[in-house]
Amino acid sequence: MSDTGIAAGHAAAPHEHHEEMDFWSKYVFSTDHKIIGFQYMFTGMFMALIGGFMAYVFRMQLAFPGESVPLFGQVTSGDYNMLITNHGTIMIFWVAMPVLIAALGNYLIPLMLGCDDMVFPRLNRLSYQIFLLSAIVLIISFIVPGGGFGGAWTAYPPLSASAEYNHTDWGSSLWVLAVALEFAAFLLGGINFLTTSMNARAEGMKMMDIPIVVWMINVAVILFMASVGPLIAGAVMLFLDQRIGTSFFLPAGGGDPVLWQHLFWFFGHPEVYVVLLPAMGVVAEVITTFSRKKLFGYKTILYTTFATGVLSFTVWAHHQFVSGIDPRMGNIFAVTTLLISIPIAEIMFCYVATLYGGSIRLTTPMLWGLSFIVEFLLGGVTGIYLGASAMDVYFHDTYFVLAHFHYTFFPIAIIGVFTAVTYWFPKMFGRMMNETLGKIHFWGTIIPFNCIFIPLFLLGMAGQHRRIYNYNNFPDLATENLQDLRVFATSAMVIMLLFQIPFIVNFFYSLFYGEKAEKNPWKANTLEWVAESPAPHGNFKELPKVYRGPYEFSHPDAKEDYWPQNVPN
C-alpha cells in the first residue's frame, strides 16, 4: 500500500464476461491466473508432505541409529544421503518457490493491480505444465534403479558428476533435469509477472501505489532471472559429465569442481532473497491490516529492497571460505556479507515501527506474521557469525550452519506460506478458516520448531558435522549428552509434524463448510478485496479505478471499508 493511500472506484468500460466453461477448461487446462495459482499452491503443498516425511525419516535415523523407522523401515547410508539431498531440494525449489512466488504471484498480481488476468495467459499455463513435469521427473528420480540422487542439494562435484561416486547413475541425471525444468518454468512465469505489473495496472495506479508484496515478488523475479543463467549452464555441463563422460568438473580429466561452487552459489545466494522477499511482502500486508496502520516507510522499504537485490550478487563466496579461496578475497566477501544485513535490518525496523502504536488484532495471520519477524531475526543474527571468515572455518558444515539456515528458510518457506494462506484464504475460497484450529496449529508449530533447532546450534558448537549417517562411528560425537540433544530435537520434530494435522483439517473443512466470507472480512485496503469472495473469472464486474490522495476516498463506503482512515502516518 502506498504512503498516500488509495481507494477503488470503477472504470467506465465494463469488463467483458467470459463464456461458461466445462470442468477441464475451467480447472485443469485453465488460463485463469487464479486457477494456475491454486495449482502451484496445491502442488507445493503436496511436495511439502514429501519433504516433511523425508525429514522425519532421517531425523529418526539420527536419534535412533540402526533401528527400523516406522512407515519406512531400515535406513541405509544411501537412503540417508538421498533423503537429506531431496529434502533440501524439495523444500527450496518445490515448496518455497512455487507457493511464495508462483502461487501468490499468479493469484495476487492481477487482483492487486486491478486487471482481469496476466498479460500472457497461455504462457502462464505452459509455465505450470513445465513445473508439474519437473515435479514428476524429481519423484521418478527416487525410484529408478540405484535410488535417488544423494549428492546433497548443492550437488557438489565430483560426488555428483559420476555414478562411480554417487552410486545412483540415472537418479542424479534426473535430479539435474528436474531442477533445469523447474528453472525454465519460473523464467516463463517471471516474464508474465513483470510484464503484467508494468503494463496492466488499474487506471490511476502509479508505480508508487503498487502494493509492497507485488513489488517484492517482482524484485525476486528479477533476481532469479539475473542469477539463474550461470547455474543452467553449469547444470548442462554437469549433465554432460554424468552422461557422456566430459570433465568440466572432474579433476581426473582436468576439470575444476570449485567452478561448480561458483556457478551454484552465484545463483544460490540471490536465491535466498528470491524466496525471502515475497515472504517479507506478505508479512508487510498482514501487519498493516491487523495493526490498522499504514506501512511505515513504504518508499524506504522499496528502495532498501532494491539495494538488497543488488548486494545479493556480491556475497556468494562466503559459502567457499574453506574451499581454497584466496584469503584476501575471503575478506572482501566477509565485508559484503555483513553489509547485506543492513538493508534487511532496516526493513525489519520499518515493520516494528508499523506495529508501534497500532491497534493490533492477534488473528491467526497476524500471529504468523509476528513470528516471522522474531524467527527470522534469530536466523539473521546467527548468519553474522558465519559471515566472518575466521569463525566460518570452524562452523562450516557443522550443525550450527544447519540450524542457522533453518532459522532463515523456515520463516520463509513455512511461516511465510502459512501467513499468506490464512490471510488470503477468504478471498481465495470465499470462506473463513477456523480461528481456534488456526491458533492451535500456530503454537503447535512454532514451539516445537524452536525445540528442534536450538539444540542443533549446541550440537554444531560441539563440532557435530553434517551428513554423517551414524554418529556412533565417531566416539567424540556419540556421547550421551549429545545423543540426548538429537533425541530431543527429533521428538520435537515429530510433534511439529503431528500439529500439521489441525491445519490440514482446518483447510479442507473450511474449504467446504467454513463460514462464508464477506468481500473484505479483514477491512484491508488493497484492490483484491474489492472483488467478490471468491473472485470470479475475470476478477471484477467492472475494472477498478484508483483515486489518489492522502486521505481521500471516492465512494461512500470507503471510510468504513478501507484503511487508513483519517489518521496521520
Please describe what this structure looks like.
Helix content is 65%, strand content 3%. The chain has 569 residues and is an all-alpha fold. The longest helix has 37 residues, at 77-113. It is globular, with a radius of gyration of 24 Å. Helix 3 (77-113) packs antiparallel against helix 7, helix 4 (121-143) runs antiparallel to helix 6 and helix 11 (364-387) packs antiparallel against helix 13 (399-429). The protein has one domain (6-12, 32-551): Cytochrome C Oxidase, Chain A, CATH 1.20.210.
CATH class (first level) name: Mainly Alpha
Question: Rg from C-alpha positions?
Answer: 24 Å
The appropriate CATH architecture is Up-down Bundle
Strand content: under 5%
Which residues sit in consecutive blocks of at least 5 with pLDDT less than 50? Answer: 1-19, 549-569
Mean pLDDT: 88
Number of domains: 1
Structure summary, number of beta strands: 2
Encode the helix/strand succession as letters: EHHHHHHHHHHHHHHHHEH
Shape by Cα distribution: globular
Give the helix/strand layout.
Blueprint: E1 6-14, H1 23-28, H2 33-63, H3 77-113, H4 121-143, H5 163-166, H6 170-199, H7 212-244, H8 257-291, H9 298-311, H10 327-355, H11 364-387, H12 389-395, H13 399-429, H14 435-461, H15 480-498, H16 500-513, E2 542-548, H17 558-561
What's the short version?
This protein has 569 residues and is mostly helical.
Descriptive terms for the model:
single chain, 569 residues, mainly alpha, Cytochrome C Oxidase, Chain A, two-stranded antiparallel ribbon, 65% helix, globular, disordered N terminus, disordered C terminus
